[in-house]
Amino acid sequence: MYQNLIFDWSGTLVDDLGPTLEATNAVFSLHGRTPMDRDEFRRLFRLPYSEFYEEHLPGVRLEDLEHHFRRAFAESQVPVTVLPHAREKLIWCREREIRCFVLTSMDRSTFEKQLDDLDMRVYFEATYSGIVDKREVIREILSNHQLHAPATAFLGDMIHDVVTAKHGGVTSVALLTGYTHREVLEAHEPDWLMADLAEFRTMMEQHLSGQS
Length: 212
Ligand SMILES: [Mg+2]
Known about the structure:
With 212 residues, the protein is of the alpha/beta class. It has helices at residues 17-30, 38-44, 49-56, 62-75, 86-95, 108-117, 135-144, 159-168, 182-186, 197-211, and strands at 4-7, 14-15, 81-82, 99-103, 126-128, 152-156, 171-175, 192-194. It contains 10 helices and 8 strands. Helix 1 packs across helix 4 (62-75) and helix 7 packs across helix 8 (159-168). The longest helix is centred in the last third of the chain and has 15 residues, at 197-211. The structure holds magnesium ion (MG). Residues 8, 10-12, 156-158, 178-179 line the site of magnesium ion.
């Protein structure tokens, strides 16, 4: 069973869809594009976000988009919250000495602030933020922390997370708590497709009790 868990952040451990949608629409309106509603955004948004913006706002410099996005995100009044079952899962891991990490595309300063505001820092051995293309660092994480790939899973809510897990040779766990619909994730054949982190915890618990 898994001794090491690498978590995506948005849509996996925290719910930031509200402010993310608000900030994306602020960037869109700045460039004269029609805003998206929640459902449209969940269908169309994808990582690496550079590709999403190139498709919807072709030719606009990524640095400019990021600048406006971060400002609108910081100004949003919609709160970012810890997803149900996320903290419980992290505490459960800590009690069993399962090593936990974060790998997220969120820019470093926003992520660091959320980590402290939500009192989540204590659960992680190391965090990797501001990673636009997670495939580029997944193997580095394994080697930096000497994580055995067959004992490691990467949990995330987007296609890019499934692709990254496969690229790193670790188990891919797709979660339905975030930005992507079930059928989209299913099509990319993750090793596990789970409703939420409670389901994942139950699966691990059953496996562990079966071992004893
Ligand atoms: Mg995510």
